[in-house]
Write a structure and sequence with these properties.
single chain, mainly alpha, 2 domains
Length: 353
């Protein structure tokens, strides 16, 4: 029951976030396509948005219903994933429709390529230290409490049981995973080559640097929140299990989850507004869609996959939503992609072996 409530809350929050993804960057990247303000705010743009919201509600409804109506077997997971896949399919279809109204040509001239910077340029060392301290605290508390864990969490040989991995082990591994993921992301951002619009100025470059700093700030807010969330769940669960409090187990799940989503949506709202204002200033200096020229228009497939062998960057800024994605033309991207999706296979194996 607790697991179903958690999954429902997660997917509901994801659905709310996805509802704003196509319009996060305004007309510069409406469904990943640079269009005019008149088109985006006009009847045709609103019609595409309403269709997307309808499909999003339908597919996420399937995903949430599968959490409650189907057992957590292979078929249940397949149906749940099918709902998520349907959302990406909807975005891809609407991307192809909106692309007919693109206002920026792929052949737009560029003044120069801003060379990759030091990979450490955007690293915030105090926050990295804070994240490591949170991870060390959670793992230390786990080691300290290990001898007091009941048989349902630790078997006779001293290893975590399936329940132990599901409730505690995965949270500890998730802390390390999030730490490495965001560290590589911030390093990759600094290494991405940036194509400049022909009328770029020093003021434009200053605004772009400011924009990048804001994005890094958002990533660090998410990183610290996630690591603190997983650590909080571990600490509260261990305390509840050792003391034998069923009420404490519920608090250990619901409390951190509520704090987590409040912090994540608060950070998204705060930085999204600031980034939107900076984008508006950049648009005035270099024209609409100038920021999206960081990656060639011709390399995008369905708006969210990028394949361009001529672009040396492994990481490129997303066209849809906020963040970065891979240039799938390079082998390094596939290696990192395998690293990032590995928990999908490793965690079930640890939990149900």
């Amino acid at each position: 029951m607790i697991g179903q409530v958690m999954l429902t809350a997660v997917w509901a929050a994801v659905a709310v976030a996805w509802a704003f993804v196509p319009i996060m960057k305004g007309a510069d990247a409406f469904f990943g396509v640079p269009v005019s303000e008149e088109f985006m705010r006009g009847p045709q743009g609103r019609r595409y948005l309403r269709i997307y919201w309808l499909l999003l509600t339908l597919f996420m409804g399937v995903t949430i219903a599968s959490v409650w109506l189907l057992p957590p077997t292979t078929m249940g997971v397949i149906i749940m994933d099918a709902g998520v896949l349907g959302v990406f399919l909807a975005i891809a279809v609407i991307f192809c429709l909106v692309r007919r109204h693109q206002v920026i040509s792929p052949a737009d001239p560029v003044a120069a390529v801003l060379q990759p910077r030091s990979r450490w340029q955007y690293i915030n060392w105090p926050l990295e230290g804070l994240c490591l301290a949170l991870i060390a605290a959670a793992w230390s508390y786990f080691v300290f409490s290990y001898g007091s864990l009941p048989p349902r969490l630790v078997d006779a040989s001293g290893h975590l049981t399936s329940i132990g991995w599901v409730s505690i082990g995965t949270q500890l591994l998730a802390q390390v995973y999030v730490f490495v993921l965001f560290l590589l992301l911030v390093m990759g951002m600094a290494q991405s080559a940036v194509r400049l619009p022909a009328n770029a100025t020093d003021e434009y470059l200053g605004l772009r640097h400011r924009y990048m700093r804001m994005m890094v700030g958002l990533f660090y807010a998410m990183k610290v929140t996630m690591i603190a969330f997983f650590g909080g769940v571990v600490a509260l669960l261990l305390r509840a299990v050792v003391t034998g409090s069923d009420h404490g187990i519920l608090v250990a799940v619901v409390g951190p989850m509520a704090a987590y989503w409040i912090a994540i949506f608060g950070a998204l709202a705060y930085y999204a507004v600031k980034m939107y204002r900076v984008r508006a200033q950049m648009r005035q200096l270099a024209g609409p869609g100038s920021l999206e020229r960081a990656a060639d228009h011709g390399g995008w497939v369905a708006g969210f996959m990028y394949f361009n062998p001529q672009d040396p960057s492994v990481w490129v800024e997303k066209r849809i939503g906020i963040g970065y994605t891979f240039n799938l033309a390079h082998w390094e991207s596939w290696l990192l992609l395998a690293l990032f999706i590995s928990p999908v296979f490793v965690i079930p194996w640890l939990c149900f072996r």
